[in-house]
Amino acid sequence: MELATQALTDKPRQAYYWRLFATATSFALFGVGGLCLRLLVFPLLSCLPGSAEKHQRRARHTISRLFWFFIRMMQRLGILTFSVEGADKLGRPGQMIIANHPSLIDVVFLIGLMRQTNCVIKQSLFQNPFTRGPVRDAGYISNDGSADMLDAAADALREGQTLIIFPEGTRTTPGAAPAFHRGAAAIALRGATIITPVVIKVSPTTLTKAEPWYRIPKCRFHFSLRVGADIEPQAFATLGPAPQASRKLNDYLHHYFIKELAEDERPTQP
C-alpha cells in the first residue's frame, strides 16, 4: 500500500518537473528564434524582390506562422491546452481587436491566429536584442504613449490594416479587474471600421505580471480565447466632442470586459 501511494505521488511530481523543463526549453527556443529571424531569416527575405510594403507583409506572415508553431509546440509538450471561439471573425480590414491581457503569451496567440496583422506592443521589445529585429521589420507600433503612436495606429487602421491593442497597456494584476486607458478608444474613433472585443482567460493563472516564467502552476494551464460581437465606433463618435466620445467608448469597453470576465469564473479547462 505504501509503495502504491508513493507511485501516485511521484507521477504529479514528475509531470511538474517535465512541464518546468518544457517551459524553459520553449522560452529558450523563442529567444533563439527571434535572434535567428533578426540575423538570418529577415535579411534573406529582404533580398527577395518587392516593395517595402511587400517585405513587411512577408515579415508579418513569417512571425504569425512561427507564433502559431510556438503555441502548438507548447500544447504538444503538455504545457497548455487551448480553445478558440470565433477566430473566423478576426483579421478584417480596418478592424481594431481589443483584448484583455492576463498573460505573457496573449499577443503570441492573437498574432498566431492571423497571418497579416499589426499590433501595439510595449516599447521595451524594440530594445530587446531577441525581438527588436522582428518587431521593426513587421512594422509593429511602440506603445510609448506619445501622440505619434496614436497617429500611427489610426493611420494603420485607415489604410485597412488589422490592429491588435491591449487597452490595459500591461498585464492584468491577478485577482484585479482590468483597468483600461483611453488611448485605445481614441484610436478606434479616429480610424477603426469596426471594433472586435476578444476575452482571454487563463486557468490556472500563469505568466502574469507578478510571476516569473519558471513559477509554473501545479497542472497544465488552459488558455481560452473568445471573440465577441462587433462594436460600431461611429455609434460613439456622435455622442459629443472627441474627448467625451472616447471616454464613453472606453467606459463601455471597460464594463464589457468586466462583465464578460465575471460572467463565468469557473475553471476554463474542458
Automatic annotation (TrEMBL):
The keyword NADP does not apply. Pathway: Lipid metabolism. Keywords: Acyltransferase, Membrane, Transferase, Transmembrane, Transmembrane helix. The chain crosses the membrane at residues 20-45. InterPro entries: Plipid/glycerol_acylTrfase (IPR002123). Residues 95-203 form the Phospholipid/glycerol acyltransferase domain. It comes from the Bacteria. One of its GO terms (biological process) is phosphatidic acid biosynthetic process. SUPFAM superfamilies: Glycerol-3-phosphate (1)-acyltransferase. Pfam families: Acyltransferase. GO terms for molecular function: 1-acylglycerol-3-phosphate O-acyltransferase activity. This is Acyltransferase. It comes from Pseudomonas fildesensis.
